Each structure stands twice: as C-alpha cells, then as structure tokens.
Amino acid sequence: LGFGGMASAAGVGDDVVTFFDMAGNQIGQDITLILLSGLFLNLFNLLPSQQKNDLEQS
C-alpha cells in the first residue's frame, strides 16, 4: 500500500488521500532514482575490485 492507500484505509478524507498519493508517488520516484543511481555506482565500483580478486585467485 502507498501512503494514499494507508490513508484511505484509515478513513481519511479524499483530499488528504489525493495529497498523500501525489506526495508518495513523487517520493517513490525520487527514491527509485537514488537507488538506481546508487546501484550503478556500486556496480562500477565492484567491477574493478572483482577483476583484482580474480587475478589474485588464479
């Protein structure tokens, strides 16, 4: 459930539900972008160290 879903489940007014839906969607998009960019940064950071580990093991 999003923020809006929780608000409507709690019996809050439609205006509040709509506000939380919009805010929740925006926050969700921001978090998704942050997570994706962080994931890509982690992947780029992991690749060189993974190659180093492979060289050391062989």
**Approximate helicity band:** over 70%
- Strand content is under 5%
* Total number of helices: 2
How are helices and strands ordered from N to C? HH
Count of spatially separate domains: 1
Taking Cα atoms only, what radius of gyration do you get, to the nearest Å? 20 Å
- Characterize the largest beta sheet: strand count, sense, and whether it forms a barrel: none
**Mean pLDDT score, rounded?**
73
Distance linking N and C termini: 49 Å
Structural class: mainly alpha
Which regions have little confidence, pLDDT < 50, spanning 5+ residues?
A: none
* Tertiary shape: rod-shaped
How many strand segments?
0
Keywords:
2 helices, 88% helix, mainly alpha, 58 residues
Draw up the topology in text.
Blueprint: H1 3-9, H2 14-57
Structural notes for this entry:
With 58 residues, this protein is mostly helical. The chain is 88% helix and 0% strand. The chain has one domain (3-57). 5% of the residues are buried.
